[in-house]
Each structure stands twice: as C-alpha cells, then as structure tokens.
Write a structure and sequence with these properties.
By secondary structure, the protein is α+β, with helices and mostly antiparallel strands. The protein has one helix and six strands. It has a domain of 83 residues: Immunoglobulin-like (Sandwich). A three-stranded antiparallel beta sheet has the order 1-2-5, with no helix packed on it. A three-stranded antiparallel beta sheet has the order 4-3-6, with no helix packed on it. The chain is rod-shaped, with a radius of gyration of 28 Å.
Length: 130
C-alpha cells in the first residue's frame, strides 16, 4: 500500500517555494504610473515692487511623469491686505522640467512690507484665442 503521507509531504516541499513566490508577488507594491498634476513646485525668483506695479519672475518645476500646463497665480500682499494679483499660464511643461516666467501685476496701496507669492495649479486646458 502506498504511503500517501510521505507523497503529500514531498509534493508540499516541492510546491512550497512556488506557492511562497506566487504569494509574495501578490503583495509587491507596483509603481504608481498615474498622472499627478499636483506634483509641482513654484518659486518666486524676483519681486520688483514699484508704485506702478510689481514685476515678478518665477520658476515652476513639473515633478510629475507627464507633461502639464500650469496656471500660476501671483499675489502681492502685506500682512493685512492684498495689493494686487494676476495669473500667468505656462502650457506644456514637460515631465521633470523647470521653466521660468515673468508677469507684471498692477498694484494699489502702500507697498511697505509687501511680498510676492506664487502658486501653481495644473491647467491642461486649451490656451490661446478661440
């Protein structure tokens, strides 16, 4: 009469590495390949303030794996109020690229203690005249 217990043990020992490997592959995290347009940094490089307006130079870095356009929201503020704001568009910034831009922002009010701020938001819409 065959020894089924011994055969089962030998089969289990032979199949065990395959089962462990298959199970491990189920739990290996896969890289995230979906686009993340919010992965962006923006920096104000220069903030030239004058009574007539502000000239702001900025740099945007697309930290995503896909090309995106960005709407850069620029604001000149004091501790208590906004003196002016504007928007600049940067279409087609390649993945991993850093691009620079400039904008003129009209200002009203006292410039004492004013600072320039920038915020970039993904804007993958159509840019230009229609």
């Amino acid at each position: 009469m065959p020894d089924w217990g011994r055969r089962a043990r030998l089969l289990a020992i032979g199949e065990l590495p395959v089962l462990v490997l298959a199970g491990a592959l189920l739990f290996v995290p896969q890289p995230d390949r979906s686009p993340h347009p919010e992965r962006v940094t923006v920096r104000v490089d220069t903030c030239g303030l004058a009574s007539s307006g502000a000239e702001i130079a900025y740099t945007v870095t697309n930290q995503d794996r896909a090309t995106h356009g960005y709407r850069v929201e620029l604001t000149v503020m004091t501790a208590t109020s906004a003196l002016g704001s504007g928007t600049s568009l940067l279409p087609g910034v390649p993945a991993g690229a850093t691009v620079s831009g400039r904008a003129l922002i009209p200002l009203t009010g006292d410039l004492t203690g004013a600072t320039c701020r920038a915020r970039a938001v993904a804007f993958d819409g159509v840019v230009g005249h229609h």
